[in-house]
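Input record (one chain):
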Amino acid sequence: MNRRIPINLLKYAVALGLMVWVVWSNWGDPRGTVGKIVVGGEPDNGKIAGKVLSYRPQESIEIERFAADGEGTDRRLGFALKKPGSWAVYVRKLFGMAPGGTELVGSDGSAWPEEATLQPGAVVTLSGISRGLAYVWQSHVQQGEPIHGGYFVLALAIALCSTLLTFVRWYILVRAVELPFRFLDAFRLGFIGLFFNSFMPGSVGGDVIKAAALAREQSRRTVAVATVIMDRAIALWALIWFVALLGAGFWLSGVLIGQGAEQCRTIVVLAWIVVATSMSVWMGLGLLPSWRAERFAGRLEHLPRAGAALAELWRAVWMYRCRPRAVFGVLMLSWVGHVGFVFLFYSAVRTLWQPDSGQAIPTLAQHFLIVPIGLVIQAAPFFPGGAGIGELGFGLLYEWLGCSEASGVLGSLVQRVINWTLGLLGGLMYLRMRGVLRAALRHEVVRANEGGLAPVPTR
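The corresponding structure, as predicted from the sequence alone:
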């Protein structure tokens, strides 16, 4: 029996179990859950104010909500309260999240006495409202309330364009080293890579397939594999640059203020540290002569186990360091693609989010800083297509910014539906294109090997 089969089955089981746990822990109460109750105070964005109708400590609260104009009442609303001490709370505590139940404070921010209660008629302001997945299920499935279909269609269109841009990015890297490769070939192998990225363990699964397929069709296999390695590496580097540059712009322009501002500034600082370090290494590589770079690769090959892989990675980095124009072009395309992926996730969240729900979500500027982190978490190699770990990561990032964890999980689930749709489409398109392109590709490879293209050193 192949050892990989039980290992892969274990990966699917872990991913499925994690996703079930994330959904279960964010299922919540259909009424919504309040994270903080302020006795008195003024209503603000993401908050609901009204008069108490009934209150049960650590159980529920029902209020008569004030109308938007401050006169009369709007409607009666009931909410559940967070219960301290659940095992899900302890798990969140490991990630530095607030572990307690619903916080009850006075208008001056002081803790409300534990022995005190809320009497009917008291004016309260509710914040930290979480509309769990149960609320979404009840509203849109049981009661049939419409979703924001425009946001979903927009997310699907953005996802398709951003994905196609990654194929173009890879095509530029392949042609930069003068391998016989056509634009349609990039789409053909890109689509099959997309399929495996969506359904195989880890987001790098499709890259392995692309590298193997391209290498099988080329005479210079080391260079072929290097193109896939560098496509992933440059995309990650561009992601860090993306966060650093945009974050600095948001910071200097005064956008990073209010809830979650401190956390966002921490992300920006860390991104700039990585950028400064990696840029120093990149510039230093330009000072190395070719013979010294090859000597270093030879030394890496003598390392136990991972030596050969590290040597190939080093040769790939060095090969593209000698082609700065191609790297810069790929960086630019990566930045455009990352903008698309941010708008994709933001649109996915807005698909099921109600602006008048009293539930806060991060601003669009904050999404530009946390979505890249969520994408890195989603690329964890142990989870098929990032299933489970992606939902957990986005949920924790939302809660880290003081917003609803369930909203982050829900946005990730909507994004996953879109990614699965494109993955299946990619598999179908590959099957349709495979037979047509196979003969043409073989002809191009034979022509190149007979001298049609200038040879490029494989190391």
